[in-house]
Specification:
Layout: E1 19-28, E2 31-41, E3 46-50, H1 57-64, E4 72-77, E5 80-82, H2 87-92, E6 95-98, H3 110-114, H4 125-128, H5 135-148, H6 166-180, E7 184-188, H7 196-211, E8 215-219, H8 223-229, E9 232-237, E10 240-245, H9 252-260
Parallel strand pairs: 3-8, 3-9, 6-7, 7-8
Antiparallel strand pairs: 1-2, 1-4, 4-5, 9-10
Helix pairs in contact: 6-7
Length: 273
């Protein structure tokens, strides 16, 4: 791993996972989406989730974010068991997700996209009765947040998202996650189809979110990105969890071998913390 945060942001023996799932099972008729998957995410770490197509990565993330309800298993936020029925439930608990399809509104400006679904109303009669938006407040808060994350690629907060590059659009989506994800940020293939420079910008933002104390789950097929950014790597295969490894103790070749079944991950090789 080429970039590390301060020691204080790393999991310690006394830390409770910010997000923990145990024994998750999801069935689609006779097709097994998840078979008894356990996963733990700690504050201030990037946990990569890797696996081949059909490994259960998307199903796992959907169960963690309220898009699906697992048939069995438990999910806990900071040690407290939760039961998400909708994605709104997960967002209210502090989990924000950037899906691969990018849920941005191209015709709206950057500020409006950051506050999409969380628009600030004007005070008093104008906001409560007429439902008028406080665009000035949203612009100011959006600008402050962009600046606090050290994002320099978004110069004009009033610029329409449809005029931005693919990397800039991804930065907007990730920045929204950082703005409202108080505990967990989940990023599904955030660097897919991006160039080298834009990929670097997005990965820097991921590390910045981690360094601010959020737990970050990064789903990616890009092994160099995973090993550059992640603190631990959760491996999925055929709907089950193979185990967890560290970029410090294993190579990208090891990770590919484990997720394809070419090698078996021994218990003494796993990185639990």
């Amino acid at each position: 791993m080429t970039d590390t945060a301060s020691v204080e942001t790393r999991p310690t023996d006394s830390q409770t996972p910010v997000l923990e799932a145990t024994g998750l099972v999801k069935l689609f008729g006779r097709v097994v989406g998840l078979r008894g998957v356990d996963i733990r995410l700690f504050p201030g770490e990037v946990l990569a989730v890797i696996g081949d197509n059909g490994a259960g990565k998307s199903t796992l993330i959907k169960c963690l974010t309220g898009a699906m309800t697992p048939d069995q298993g438990t999910i806990k936020i900071e040690g407290r068991e939760v039961n998400f029925k909708t994605t709104q439930d997960a967002r209210a608990a502090g989990i924000e997700t950037v899906y691969q399809t990018l849920a941005v509104a191209p015709a709206l400006d950057i500020a409006s996209n950051l506050y999409l679904g969380r628009e600030i109303r004007r005070p008093g009669f104008a906001g409560k009765v007429l439902r008028m938006l406080d665009k000035k407040a949203m612009r100011q808060h959006a600008q402050d947040h962009i600046r606090s994350l050290g994002i320099t690629t978004l110069q004009n907060i009033d610029q329409a998202v449809e005029t931005l590059s693919g990397g800039q659009r991804q930065v907007v989506a990730v920045a929204r996650t950082g703005a409202f994800g108080s505990k967990v940020a989940i990023l599904d293939e955030p660097t897919a189809a991006l160039g080298v420079r834009e990929t670097g910008q997005v990965l820097k933002l991921v590390r910045d979110l981690r360094d601010k104390g959020l737990g970050v789950i990064l789903i990616s097929h890009n092994m160099p990105n995973v090993f550059e950014t992640a603190d631990r790597i959760h491996i999925q295969r055929l709907g089950g969890a193979v185990g967890v490894i560290s970029p410090k103790t294993h190579s990208p070749e090891d990770a590919v071998a484990f997720m394809t079944g070419a090698r078996q991950l021994r218990e003494d090789e796993q990185t639990l913390r």
